[in-house]
Amino acid sequence: MLTREQQVELLKCRENVAYFIDTYCWIENKTSREWVRFRLWPDQVSTLQSLQDHQLSIVLKARQLGLTWLLVCYGLWMMLFRPGTGVLLFSRRDDEAAELLDRVRQVHLRLPAFLRAKVGTDNDHELQLVKLDSRAQSFPTTKHSGRSYTATLAVVDEADFIRWLRQLLTAVKPTIDAGGQLVLLSTADKEDPSSEFKRLWNQAVAGENNYCPVFLPWSARPDRDMVWYERQKADYSLDDLYQEYPATPEEALASRTSSKRFQPDWLSACRGEGKPLAGVGPALPGLVVWEVPRRGGQYLVSADPAEGNPSSDPSPAVVFDALTWGQVAGLYGNFEPDVLGGYLVELAEWYNEAVICVERNNHGHAVHVAIRNRGGEDLVYLNPHDNKDGWLSNAKMKTLATDVTAETLRDGGCIIQDDATINELAIFEAGTLKAPAGMTDDRAMAIINGLAALRWPSLRHRGTGESRIVEPEDIIDERETRGW
Ligand SMILES: Nc1ncnc2c1ncn2[C@@H]1O[C@H](COP(=O)(O)OP(=O)(O)OP(=O)(O)O)[C@@H](O)[C@H]1O
Ligand SMILES: [Mg+2]
Fold first, then answer.
1. 202 with 335, same domain?
2. How far apart are CA 53 and CA 40, in angstroms?
């Protein structure tokens, strides 16, 4: 039998989750392994209120703000005071998921007896409070979280580090539609600037979805001050500081300054020493030649036609020696597609009937037409992926081409002669596979697509590249290992 006092407390807890946590929950300091009272910090109180007020919440946070404990205690409160509650706890790995559930178990164990409930099933993945018909379950997140779940509260911890977040949310969605709550919780993962979590966050902030965004800066913990922050600053790189202890959402979401796809030292190692040769080669505007064609040499011309306005945006082309993968020439200018096509044929003919690889983008088709009109039909590179004209420039093929370029540069496997191209490669972003906003990457793309075309020659140009030739099946393997 409960005393009168206990009955009052029970009621107070039922009415007020913050009171329940602040008065009765104990949490473990994972560093010192000490159990302490969970006296809520002001930001924890306001976060709790926001979570209660919204069906969908997305929390972007600095590290170590007690948010995992807060969600664990909130889940436990629902299990105790809302009979029939189902709590789903998602984490990246199975051991992390089990650890989350163990937090629920441990907080429950430390409640005074009058608040505790009878435990039924009790294992790594489930904790059941039998009489209340409530239970918490924990799951790791895998690519195949394809099942559907039912719950009153679903919590996805470290959500930005979950690769299959989109698939997971699809599976959890029916729960929400039936009136449940969903909370996504994470620090930002700087390795993935275009993640699903960040997409949802940005939409939430723009009011384009139904998530309520909550940002918690490093200072959301009362025991942190500027002295503390300065100390972190000294210990971390700026990127790491912004990831772990952002002051603003922008700091949290900014891509790494070191998020460049190609490292500076790789580029230095591949920088050519050649001097441009004057007065050689066909008379084309913007042509720079570093090496004239060798007798018997095989070459590849790679061009990136302007995506925008061809007369004002650059449409560079580079020429590679297919044996050494060294750059021997560059054609730099703003050319209309039909003009560019003609120039490419002239250049290719001079370089011993070189293969011409043109990116298959919106102007690429027009360039291919021009190449054919000028009799360059047999020179056109056919993508082994589909045996059609040019390097296919969809997201997957771009990733593939960029990976090949990264491997080649890292191994010092090519030579790039002009500095403007080196610069474009140096700022090429890993997250977006593009230049940063407002900057160009046309020269970089001509190199990237060119190296990909050298790595995977057209079936009809299989003689090109000699020792570096790989079977075209390779591209199929790539596709399979990447799950395309
Ligand atoms: N109100 C509080 N009073 C005392 N200690 C607290 C409080 N809130 C959190 N802590 C301590 O902060 C630490 C971090 O808690 P928790 O793991 O829940 O935070 P988190 O925000 O999920 O951190 P992470 O970024 O590491 O996931 C724990 O050691 C916990 O004991
Ligand atoms: Mg946490």
1. no
2. 18
Cα–Cα separations (whole angstroms), residue 134 to 183, 262, 454, 472: 19, 52, 61, 56
pLDDT tens profile 238-254: 888 989 999 988 788 87
Q: How many domains does the chain have?
A: 2
Kindly report, residue by residue over 75-123, the tens digit of the pLDDT: 999 999 999 999 999 999 999 999 999 999 999 999 999 999 999 999 9
The residues with which 467 forms a beta bridge, in sequence order, are none
Q: How far is the CA of 239 from the centre of ligand 1 (A)?
A: 22
Domain span including residue 17? 4-253
| Most informative mutation of 41, 48, 69, 224 for ligand 1 (most atoms within 8 A of CB) | 69
Pocket probe mutation, ligand 1, options 29, 44, 60, 64, max atoms within 8 Å of Cβ: 64
* Any domain includes 258: no
314/449: higher pLDDT: 449
| pTM score | 0.60
Task: Kindly state the greatest CA–CA separation across the chain.
Answer: 102
- Tokens 């790594």 appear where? 124
Q: Give phi and psi for 318, each to the nearest 5.
A: -125, 155
Residues 6+ apart with CB under 8 A from 283: none
The verdict on 282 and 191 lying in the same domain is no
Q: Quick check: is 359 in a domain?
A: yes
Same domain for 81 and 218, yes or no, is: yes
Q: At 345, which amino acid appears?
A: V
Domain contains 454: yes
Q: Rounded CA gap, 365 and 341, in Å?
A: 10
Q: For ligand 1, is residue 29 a contact (CB within 6 Å)? A: yes
Q: How far is the CA of 415 from the centre of ligand 1 (A)?
A: 51
Of 227, 253, 279, at which residue does a domain stop? 253
